[in-house]
Design goal:
The chain has helices spanning 11-90, 93-104, 117-126. By secondary structure, the chain is mainly alpha-helical. It is rod-shaped and about 145 Å long. The N and C termini lie far apart (109 Å).
Length: 127
């Protein structure tokens, strides 16, 4: 109440003033509780968002690493297939004979090897 207006000192006004003060205190307590719980909730949300961000980054790095390893694995598999084919060819007598004739100009007994100009150019291109 203002200074110019004086309250009546009866029981009704004192109860009304007490009720108003209790109401104001409850409002302050509720505001404090909302502030504390809201702040706690906000802190939890921030922590969870940080954790999600870190997990997304970790998943991205893991996928990049996995992709690189898959590429390496594929290259190794291709190389293994080539080596197996080469091994199979080296176990084949006809293939060995063909390589010996083409690259080392070896011949069987009684055979004569003639070099044609086209073959020489092809051989130079291969090298």
């Amino acid at each position: 109440m203002s200074k110019k207006v004086k309250g009546i000192g009866n029981q009704y006004t004192s109860e009304a003033n007490a009720k108003r003060q209790r109401h104001e205190r409850r409002k302050q307590v509720v505001k404090k509780r909302i502030t504390v719980f809201g702040g706690t909730l906000l802190a939890i949300i921030i922590v969870l968002l940080i954790m999600v961000g870190l997990q997304i980054r970790s998943n991205y790095e893991a996928s990049q690493e996995r992709q690189a390893k898959e590429e390496t694995y594929q290259k190794i598999q291709d190389e293994e297939i080539e080596l197996k084919e080469q091994l199979n060819n080296l176990n084949d007598d006809e293939y060995i004979e063909k390589i010996a004739r083409d690259e080392y100009y070896l011949s069987n007994d009684g055979e004569i090897i003639f070099k044609l100009p086209e073959e020489q150019e092809d051989h130079k291109k291969k090298e």
